[in-house]
Design brief:
It contains 4 helices and 3 strands, in the order H-E-E-H-H-E-H. With 119 residues, the protein is an alpha+beta fold. The longest helix is centred in the first third of the chain and has 25 residues, at 4-28. One of its GO terms (cellular component) is cytosol. This is Ribosome-binding factor A. It comes from Profundicola chukchiensis.
Length: 119
Amino acid sequence: MESNRLNKVNQLIQKDMADIFRKLTSKIGRNMLITVTEVRTTSDLSISKVYLSIFPTNNTDKVMDFVKENHAFIRGELGNRIGKQMRIVPELQFFVDVTLDKADEIDRALKGKGDNPVL
């Protein structure tokens, strides 16, 4: 179970990362939606796992390549925002959140419209 402090840190990082990605979408590409769905920070506050939902999904590789290339810039931007509240800016690890895709796939399969019927 996460502590109240850790939950607040996760919410702070999620809010600021969402704002950073909203401003970066013009550099990544137009007609794209990047959502920070979840942030999980270790108890020692050294590492934060950031989960991104990317729409349309065919841009996932492009976005993740951009994130890898600009990892230091993104962490620096986060540091500028949370530097007053936290002494150390956690190391960021980015992951693609596919839960919405999986839910849609299951929903289509249950309705009988999917490619793979569930049996």
